[in-house]
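User: Can you predict the 3D structure for this chain?
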Amino acid sequence: MPGNQAAREQAEVRNARASEWMKRGIALLNENTPTSLTASLRWFEGAIELRLALPLQENPWYRYVLAAGWMNRGDALTRLGSTENLAEAVHSYDQALVLLRTLDLETNPLFPRRLGLAWMNRGVTLQAQGTAASVRAALDSLDEAIALLRDPFESSRAENRAALAN
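Assistant: Here is the predicted structure, written as structure tokens:
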């Protein structure tokens, strides 16, 4: 049991360090210059590396915050905008989606929101690639985002209207 407690504490220290690195990356991302965006990638990639060593299967929150690192990396790459960066950004969003799809979306309202944002950001990046195939894929990604992010009461209202009409 003491070994488990020590491992949990070590994981929390590692996660806290990754959070600090993410904050540094976000500060650079917000500067939104080519130099700051490139610098932000080092912080995001460092945070990703730290979080990849966490007990991801044991703790869904660790998967959630690891996905945030991939998404921030994707955001920086999308803003840099070269063909190579856009392709790598899509890869980053795909990595985030793999993680986010493992979460039980019913347990935390943040989980479906981040999943929807990952689909939305992936769609925006695919659209920026500008090919016919990427635009079609962008529309599919945006459809996924809309399905996740729409007002949760919208379907209830539609069902109620249908019930009243009968």
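The chain is about 85% helix and 0% strand. The mean pLDDT is 91.
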